[in-house]
Design a protein that fits this description.
- By secondary structure, this protein is of the alpha/beta class.
- The protein is 37% helix and 15% strand.
- The protein has three domains: 2-319, Thiamin diphosphate (ThDP)-binding fold, Pyr/PP domains (Rossmann fold), CATH 3.40.50; 346-536, Rossmann fold; 550-676, Rossmann fold (3-Layer(aba) Sandwich).
- It is built from 22 helices and 23 strands.
- Strands 2-3-1-4-5-9-8 form a seven-stranded mixed sheet, sandwiched between helices. The protein has a seven-stranded mixed sheet with strand order 12-11-13-14-16-15-21, sandwiched between helices.
- The N and C termini lie far apart (89 Å).
- The structure holds thiamine diphosphate (TPP) and magnesium ion.
- The site of thiamine diphosphate has 14 residues, from strand 6.
Length: 677
């Protein structure tokens, strides 16, 4: 390795070598443990290591540089094959091993496992979704840039990951915003059984940098010292504010994709040929040749590394196994905020109430930023960020390219780095292109980290139909979000709640999906019911998340509503009253966690329950509400509970068809009359 003479400090070479040796020992030991005591599926005895195992022996050079070039404050997002990256970043080996062995002393109390290691002490995380490390790294990098800290964020991905949209979007955003990110592509030739030649025509993955006006470096020969030089250049570029770098490195894995992989796709002699040029062996020889270390020094490294690995394993083995019921903890971070309004305020349309709430919080907390498409000078196409750009500027009120995966995905990195991002998904219908960050990262990181990494994120999104925008711009989709553990879902029906809920959502340490119905916003260009425009105090106040409101008291039946259907039910109740029917109306305010107590108490009182919303009927909010009252107030019911929801058809364009499918006050009136008669 002639590059050893190119100026690298001897101690750095030794540190890189030691890190590689430790990683290799680790993988060999973990493999032994894994294979030694495998228990059958669905057995409560987990054995040494319960889950799947992706080992990285051979790939040490891709990461060892981090042990000398990175600081604790720098962030690293790694992949499903993470051990060498974690060790190189200095993750606590005892806790990591305990995590892999599913123990309570693990990094995440046994909730994450080997693909979901989180060590906030050294800012390391990894994930099992291929390509998903890139967007969060953007977020961490953006937080460094906003805070003028010269830290860097590193995102790892395999050769299989860079054909993902998330990769392309992240490359673009990193380049556009000149973020201090280093993308490291570990090209080990295989994505499970698919050879890299069958997934791209490019010779080197680094060539992709060209398309994003970003420097790209390819490191050949799985060489840890060449990798060091490439990374050093990238780290210096990032730290000095000159933006991102893409590094690809030709590497290899000695073991199968996972332990148990029959490896039928691999040429017979591939591994034995590769072992002849093993990077640890080659570096050892080069170090001896260049008098960087002698045999005694090598022995010391070998022994101390072995000792550290063995010690970590015995720490894990002697640690407690969690109780089954521990699974139910750490889904949500506890909340503690309640601010009562002091004044009555003045009438304000809902869209202005939303932006006023955001503005108050942004003024108080520099860590809050608002990101999305057209949210800057335009104020958001539904006005939710009206006036914020002029007040807070383009850094904190950030227009993004149309890259929902990247910018919504960046929110988890921003949050992990101490920010409180609000991101706007313009129409909830666009969720499809950004669902992985929401469902697998933003929602689950708190749990998967054993409650160690909070996700104070608000996702604002417009919902609802009624104005002829058809199947891809009119959906409500409460149920999709509400179905995912870790998310909260709120839906204001009037200006007062809109502001108070927004403030609560921002103050909450959990991800909150803030869904506003377009037809309630009070926009000048869209008709809206006057009942949405309520008095809004000028000061800061909260509306509690998880608490429904009884907005009309009655004895004959309970109508459960949310968002637009609140107003329809109120209208229907006036007509019902004339018929001698006294309806109690519940505005859920929060769809998840649903306020079971208010529903049950009301069902017990009236004995009749009609649930109404604008989401698709099957598996929806109405089904949930009715299940709750059926399970917990069955003996009080005088009639079968009923639902009015959107039928299971896509939203049609033409007015008569759309009006036929939407809930309305007539449908509520008719159904209520039948139920009560
Ligand atoms: C989005 C997604 N698609 C598919 C998978 C299943 N899967 C897990 S690893 C893998 C191959 C990844 O290959 P590569 O990125 O080259 O990483 P390597 O396994 O070689 O380290 C696949 C297809 C996944 N986890 N996530
Ligand atoms: Mg690969």
């Amino acid at each position: 390795m002639s590059v050893l003479n190119d100026g690298i400090d001897k101690n750095d070479v030794i540190a890189i070598y030691s890190t590689m040796v430790k990683s290799r020992h680790y993988e060999e030991k973990i493999r032994e443990l894994y294979l030694n005591d495998k228990k059958p599926l669905f057995s409560i005895a987990a054995g040494n290591i319960p889950g799947e195992m992706h080992l990285s022996a051979g790939q040490e050079p891709t990461a060892a540089w981090m042990s000398v070039l990175l600081r604790k404050e720098d962030f690293v997002y790694s992949t499903h094959r993470p051990h060498h990256t974690a060790i190189s970043k200095g993750v606590n080996l005892n806790k990591m091993t305990a995590e892999i062995m599913g123990r309570t002393t693990g990094l995440s109390k046994g909730k994450g496992g080997h693909m979901h290691l989180f060590d906030p002490e050294v800012n390391f995380a990894c994930a099992g979704i291929v390509g998903s490390s890139f967007p969060p790294a953007l977020g961490a990098a953006l937080s460094f840039k906003l805070d003028k800290k010269n830290n860097v964020a590193v995102a790892f991905g395999g050769d299989g990951s860079l054909n993902q949209g998330m990769f392309m979007e992240s490359m673009n955003l990193a380049s556009l915003w000149k973020l201090p990110v280093i993308f490291v592509i570990e090209n080990n030739d295989w994505a499970i059984s698919v050879n890299v030649k069958d997934s791209t025509l490019l010779k080197h993955d680094s060539e992709r940098a060209l398309g994003f006006n970003m420097p790209g470096i390819n490191v050949s020969d799985n060489d840890p010292i060449k990798m060091y030089y490439a990374a050093k250049e990238a780290v210096e570029r990032a730290r000095s504010g000159d933006g991102p770098t893409l590094i690809s490195i030709d590497t290899y894995r000695y073991y199968g994709h996972f332990e148990g992989d029959p490896e039928v796709y691999r040429p017979k002699n591939e591994v034995s040929d590769l072992l002849k040029k093993d990077p640890i062996k080659l570096l050892r020889e080069a170090m001896l040749e260049n008098n960087i270390i002698n045999n005694d020094g090598l022995d010391r490294i070998e022994n101390s590394s072995m000792e550290e690995v063995n010690q970590a394993i015995s720490y894990a083995e002697n640690s407690q196994i969690p109780a089954g019921k521990d699974a139910l903890e750490d889904v949500y971070s506890p909340v503690n905020y309640e601010i009562k309004p002091k004044t009555k305020g003045r009438k304000l349309p809902m869209y202005m109430a939303i932006s006023e709430g955001i503005s108050i919080e942004m003024e108080k907390d520099q860590n809050i930023l608002y990101m999305g498409e057209d949210v800057g000078i335009y104020g958001g196409i539904f006005g939710a960020s009206t006036g914020l750009y002029n007040k807070f500027g383009s850094e904190r009120v950030r227009d993004t390219p149309i890259s929902e995966s990247a910018f919504i995905g960046s929110a988890s990195g921003l949050a992990a780095a101490g920010k409180r991002p609000i991101v706007e998904l313009m129409f909830t219908d666009f969720l499809g292109v950004a669902f992985d960050p929401v469902m697998n990262h933003i929602a689950k990181n708190y749990y998967m980290s054993g409650g160690n990494v909070k996700m104070p994120i608000v996702i604002t999104t417009a919902i609802g139909g009624g104005y002829g925008d058809a199947a891809q711009h009119s959906q409500t989709l409460f149920s999709i979000f509400a179905h995912i553990p870790g998310l909260k879902v709120v839906v204001p029906s009037n200006s007062y709640d809109a502001k108070g809920l927004m403030i609560s959502a921002i103050k909450d340490n959990n991800p909150v999906i803030y869904m506003f119905h377009k037809g309630l916003l009070g926009l000048p260009w869209m008709p809206y019911p006057q009942s949405t425009v309520t008095e809004v105090p000028e000061e800061e106040y909260t509306v509690p998340i998880g608490k429904a409101k009884i907005i009309r008291e009655g004895n004959d039946l309970t109508i459960i509503t949310a968002g637009s259907t609140v107003h329809m039910a109120m209208e229907a109740s006036e007509r019902l009253e004339k018929e001698g029917i006294n309806a109690e109306i519940i505005d859920l305010v929060t769809v998840k966690p649903i306020d079971e107590k208010t529903l049950i108490d009301s069902a017990k009182k009236t004995g009749r329950v009609l649930a109404v919303d604008e989401d698709y009927q099957s598996y929806g909010m109405t089904s949930e509400a009715i299940s709750i009252v059926s399970e917990k107030a069955f003996e009080y019911l005088k009639a079968p509970p009923k639902r009015i929801a959107y039928p299971d058809v896509p939203v049609p364009y033409s007015r008569p068809m759309e009006q036929f499918t939407l809930p309305n006050s007539n449908k509520i009136f008719d159904e209520a009359k039948i139920m009560v008669k």
